[in-house]
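Single-chain item
Fold in token form
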Amino acid sequence: MVSRTAAFVIDGVDAVRVTVEADLRPGLPSFSVVGMPDRAVTEARERVRAAIANSGFDFPLRRLVVNLAPAGLRKEGPALDLAIAGAVLAASDQLPKGALDGVALFAELSLDGRLQACRGALAAAEGARREGTGRLVAAPASALEASLVSGLQAVALGHLSRLAGAVGGSWHEPLAPAPPVAATGLPDLSDVRGHALAVEALVTAAAGGHNLLMVGPPGTGKTMLARRLPGILPPLTEAEALEVTRIQGVAGIGPGGALTRARPFRAPHHSVSASGLVGGGAVPTPGEATLAHRGVLFLDELSEFSRPALEALRVPLEEGELTVTRGQRTVRLPASFALVAATNPCPCGRGDEGCRCTEADLARYGRRLSGPLVDRLDLLVRVERPSSAALAGPAGTTSEAEAERVGRARERQLERSGCPNALLPVGRLGEARCSAAAAAELTRAYDAGALSARGRDRALRVARTIADLRGADEVAGQDVAGALAYRHDAAPPVVR
């Protein structure tokens, strides 16, 4: 007899449907799993055998073959345990006929029959809804995460012995909804002293979703500024929150069944590899760029990162996603983030104040950042040592005040274009609405060779953001001048 049930495996950050087929027929007792299983799936034979026996069922002592379709997709992880057990019980007539129709099973099994939570429950729930599956049976913690998806019944099951009641709809574990994880306790801009221009660059980056590079000696406050960016970013929308929660759940760093409302802030060490930064490996997995999706990727000591790792960022900075291909497997990973980087002006870090670096040292240090990468950075600002008077003085602004400015500017962008200025496609740059003076200023800079074609488009986006921050409908010449000043490390005007 052949029985079938639905399951889901994680592929990148999405879920792919797997049909688990169990064929039971007379013959010498055996239990084999086919369909490109990895070691964790192959070992499910022993977990399933023990769990069935310890849950009051009889494990069939006949020839048993379990097929995982499609056979060309490699199956990884323990999330198929419950589906395999369900298919075996249905094939041996220990579950009612048709009980598994329209139901997806997603859980790991303990030897005593208890269900364990697995990574990617939200992704599996979204996959089940996409495939038209009405119910998803999972461990309580996974079911809580899956319940965030509307249009799908998430059924919590604590033990395999109650599977018949769970798939029949007559029994399930109670779920206590977890409160959303809010962005609380974030560092505040009121701690910053003597960096008015850098703070304005940070606000501009937050308002338009632009990339930012801060250059300055060690200890001047570059990292301090970067860590205050999430506190002024607009809150996540419902769709973005689900997307971020799904990615975090696949990576195993999720909030445990709650919907996250905090934008991601990832700060990998400069020793990270290219695959660790953008994703990859023998089995393609998300990297830091994907974990920072809809948030901030902060690269401290940018010049210390390996050249291959930094060059791998060029595609996601342009496209907002990347494609990883390993062998015959291709995985698409979302990677739409705001890049904030910090670096020293030279190897010794002193910059203009007593620099001891030779010309050769400076040339070698400068070659660590390629021109194409720097050209993709919208804002460049110097962060110098603040004076003693500035350090002892009052705060220039607060995160609450700047968040209001950023929110108003972002609302203008969404009403006008439906997206932040940094994501405005090239074909829609005409929506920036430049004045004659602004267009002339931009043309003058391009004709003088100060901008590449890409740089011209990015400068226009930044100018549009500066105009939005001051509440203007039209980009003025001063807005373009401010955007060009950011790109050429001059002193941009502080817009209030």
About this structure: Residues 399-417 form the longest helix (19 residues). The radius of gyration is 27 Å.
